[in-house]
Amino acid sequence: MPDNPIRPTIPLDAPGKRHGFLKLPHSRNDSAWGAQMIPLTVIGGAPGPTALLTGANHGDEYEGPIALQALAHELEPGALTGRLIILPFFNHPAFQAGTRVSPIDGVNLNRAFPGAPDGSVTQKIADYVARQLVPLADLVVDFHSGGKTLDFLPQACAHVLDDSAQQARCVAAARAFAAPYTLMLREIDAAGMYDSEVEGQGKTFVTTELGGGGTATARSARIARRGLRNLLIHAGHLPGEIEDPGTVMLDMPGDECYHAAPCSGLVEPLVDLGEAVHRGMALARIWPVERSGGAPETVLAQTEGILAARHFPGLTQIGDTLAVVAVPRR
Ligand SMILES: [Zn+2]
């Protein structure tokens, strides 16, 4: 396999707290011998396990970067057992542009795994993290939110896995995050995801969906910071008690949970996040935008549960995910 040119500018295995970069050579019009400098903090404490913590896998999701920047700034190594490898801005070019996918190569990092050492910028980031950082970790946490086009009930997520012991570890960690909701997730588009790569390496993996709309709120930022601290206590990195105000367990059993827009147009939401949904209930109307006086298309719930995610912009395109219904576990 060709060599990946990414190099960390700080040691990954030294005690203490260090701030540096993953340096990725990137020759381009405005910098002939330039580099992408992806911020990296490594904190080494007393001997113990390793956690790999990432935010901004998608560049328009903000709760993870907030919680991880706060952790990198505030945590002292004396308080830590084990090692934390922190990438607050996993897809740094996308984060700087405020876009979901990288503006350099148009690649969605969370569909680029396992990546390619001689591929595009995003493919190189994926390859480096998958082959050099994930193997070091016992726990991997990847923060997501809805980005500019979706909004979610704040939730930590674990996936349905073939290995039931690994799934139990992941569920216990997601539960320890103590977000208002904890979801058992089956992906609709799992190929190339970081999640699948990390789980394939046998790691304990937690992901989140903490809000959306291309911003954070005071509530969602608090949930992210509290959940991260809870997870680090759960994994033995930090002393203290998990702060658990309670969570609602959710399932997404099948394709019927996902509701796509049947046409383009103006969205009239009829149900808000967290509200109860019954089968056949109208979730949204989509009004025509090219002429006045026409009838809307009505999107009906295919299953019962609660509204767990919704399309965020006021206008939709045909095929956009308009609503996701999750089923509370009784
Ligand atoms: Zn995301």
UniProtKB/TrEMBL annotation:
Cofactor(s) annotated in UniProt: Zn(2+)
Keyword hit for Ion transport: no
Gene Ontology MF annotations = hydrolase activity, acting on carbon-nitrogen (but not peptide) bonds, in linear amides; hydrolase activity, acting on ester bonds; metal ion binding
Q: Tell me the protein's name.
A: N-alpha-acetyl diaminobutyric acid deacetylase DoeB
SUPFAM superfamilies per the UniProt record, alphabetical: Zn-dependent exopeptidases
Task: Supply the alphabetized keyword list.
Answer: Hydrolase, Metal-binding, Zinc
InterPro entries in alphabetical order: AstE_AspA_cat, DoeB, N-alpha-Ac-DABA-like, N-alpha-Ac-DABA_deacetylase
Is the keyword Zinc assigned to this protein?
yes
- Span of domain Succinylglutamate desuccinylase/Aspartoacylase catalytic: 47-234
Matching entries from PANTHER family are given as: BLL3975 PROTEIN
